[in-house]
C-alpha cells in the first residue's frame, strides 16, 4: 500500500466514528470521484457480488432482508449467466438463495427472462462467452432487469472504474486491493443509487442480514478512500513503463542462464499490467517451475512467484506450464526487482549444474 494509504489507516484507528455516517460519507465521496450514482465499501469484491445479488432480490424489503436465503416465497431468485462465465465465485450468488439460468447465445438470452428473473451476471474477465457487454446490458434493460458486472481485478486502466457503469451496468464490483492498492480486505460496489442503498441494508453493521459477517471497519473504509484518491492521481502509461522497467531488469539477469527465455506479457483484462514470463529447457535446467517456486519461498527474504507458475493459469490471460515461471512485478517495492532477479538467477543456475 502507498504511504498515504497506510497513514490514512493509522489516522482512522485513532478516532471513534459513527460507522453508518462514515459509510454514507465515504460512499457519496467515492460516487462523485468515480462518476456513478452510488458507492459502497465492501469487505472484498466477493462480498460485493453477494451484496449485489441481495440488493436485487430484496430491494429494501425488510422482511426479505431477514428471510433470505431460506424463505423465498414471493421473491424473484433467477440469475441469468453465460455458461462460460461460471467461476469460483458462483457461491456468493447462490448464498442469497438464487439459482442460475445458463445461456450461450443471444437468442437464448432473450428467451431466458421470466417473472422470476432478478439479475443478470457478467464476469468481466471471462475468456469465453458469445454475448458482448453491450448486448448483455441492452437485453437486460429491455426486460427491466438489473445487470451486475464482476470486474474485481480489472484496473488498470484507471478509467475502468467508470467505464462499466457508464456502459450501463447497474452494479459493478472491484477489489480494493490489487491495482487500487488499498486494504486487501476491501472492495468497491458501484452503481445505481437505489441498488447501492439496498446493498447497504443487507450489509454490516446491520444485524440479522446476509452480510452481517462481512464487516468493514473504519480503518478499511478510510484506507480505501485514500487508495482511490492515490490511484486516480496515477498515470496508466507511467505505471506501465515502470513495470516494464522492472521486468526488463529481471529478464536481463535470468537470461544469462542457458536456455532461459523471458518476455513481457500483459493479460487482456484482469491484472492488465506487465508480467514477466520465463521459460526454459527442462532437459538443461533440472527443476520444474513448481520446484523453482518452492526454492524462492525458502530463501531470505522469502519471495513468492505468481500463482500461475508451474501450472494452470491462476488469472485469465496468464499462461501456465511445468516450465513456465510468472513474475508479477507491480507490487514490488523500490529495489526489490534487484533482489528477485538475483535470487531467481541463482535458483535457475543451481538447476543447470
Structure in words:
The chain has two domains: 3-232, Aspartate Aminotransferase, domain 2, CATH 3.40.640.10; 236-351, Aspartate Aminotransferase, domain 1 (Alpha-Beta Complex). It is built from 13 helices and ten strands. The protein is of the alpha/beta class and 353 residues long.
Topology of helices and strands:
Layout: H1 3-12, H2 19-33, E1 38-42, H3 45-58, H4 62-67, E2 78-82, H5 90-94, E3 99-103, H6 106-112, E4 117-123, H7 133-142, E5 147-150, H8 160-167, E6 171-175, E7 187-191, H9 193-201, H10 218-232, H11 236-254, E8 261-265, E9 275-279, H12 289-298, E10 324-328, H13 336-351
Parallel strand pairs: 2-3, 2-4, 4-5, 5-6
Antiparallel strand pairs: 1-7, 6-7, 8-9, 9-10
Helix pairs in contact: 1-10, 2-10, 3-9, 11-13
List keywords for this structure.
single chain, alpha/beta, Aspartate Aminotransferase, domain 2, Aspartate Aminotransferase, domain 1, 7-stranded mixed sheet, globular
Strands, total number: 10
Strand order of the largest sheet: 1-7-6-5-4-2-3
Backbone shape = globular
The average pLDDT value, as a whole number, equals: 96
Amino acid at each position: 500500500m502507498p504511504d498515504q494509504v497506510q497513514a490514512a489507516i493509522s489516522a482512522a484507528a485513532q478516532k471513534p466514528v459513527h460507522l453508518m455516517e462514515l459509510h454514507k460519507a465515504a460512499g457519496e465521496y467515492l460516487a462523485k470521484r468515480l462518476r456513478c450514482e452510488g458507492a459502497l465499501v465492501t469487505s472484498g469484491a466477493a462480498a460485493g457480488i453477494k451484496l449485489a445479488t441481495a440488493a436485487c432480490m430484496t430491494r429494501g424489503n425488510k422482511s426479505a432482508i431477514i428471510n433470505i436465503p431460506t424463505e423465498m416465497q414471493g421473491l424473484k431468485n433467477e440469475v441469468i449467466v453465460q455458461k462460460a462465465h461460471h467461476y469460483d465465485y458462483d457461491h456468493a450468488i447462490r448464498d442469497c438463495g438464487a439459482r442460475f439460468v445458463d445461456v450461450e447465445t443471444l437468442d437464448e438470452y432473450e428467451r431466458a427472462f421470466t417473472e422470476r428473473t432478478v439479475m443478470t451476471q457478467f464476469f468481466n474477465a471471462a475468456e469465453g462467452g458469445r454475448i458482448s457487454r453491450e448486448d448483455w446490458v441492452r437485453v437486460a434493460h429491455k426486460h427491466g432487469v438489473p445487470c451486475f458486472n464482476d470486474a474485481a481485478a480489472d484496473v488498470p486502466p484507471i478509467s475502468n472504474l467508470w467505464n462499466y457503469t457508464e456502459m450501463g451496468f447497474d452494479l459493478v464490483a472491484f477489489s480494493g486491493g490489487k491495482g487500487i492498492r488499498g486494504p486487501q480486505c476491501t472492495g468497491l460496489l458501484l452503481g445505481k443509487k437505489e441498488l447501492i442503498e439496498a446493498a447497504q441494508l443487507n450489509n454490516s453493521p446491520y444485524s440479522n442480514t446476509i452480510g452481517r459477517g462481512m464487516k468493514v471497519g473504519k480503518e478499511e473504509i478510510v484506507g480505501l478512500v485514500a487508495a482511490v484518491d492515490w490511484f486516480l492521481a496515477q498515470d496508466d502509461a507511467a505505471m506501465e513503463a515502470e513495470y516494464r522497467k522492472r521486468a526488463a531488469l529481471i529478464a536481463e539477469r535470468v537470461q544469462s542462464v542457458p536456455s532461459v527465455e523471458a518476455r513481457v506479457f500483459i493479460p487482456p483484462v484482469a491484472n492488465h499490467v506487465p508480467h514477466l514470463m520465463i521459460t526454459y529447457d527442462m532437459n538443461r535446467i533440472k527443476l520444474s517451475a513448481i520446484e523453482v517456486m518452492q526454492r524462492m519461498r525458502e530463501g531470505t527474504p522469502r519471495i513468492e512467484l505468481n500463482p500461475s507458475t508451474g501450472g494452470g493459469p491462476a488469472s485469465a490471460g496468464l499462461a501456465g506450464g511445468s516450465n513456465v515461471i510468472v513474475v508479477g512485478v507491480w507490487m514490488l517495492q523500490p529495489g526489490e526487482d534487484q533482489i528477485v532477479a538475483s535470487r531467481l538467477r541463482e535458483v535457475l543456475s543451481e538447476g543447470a549444474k
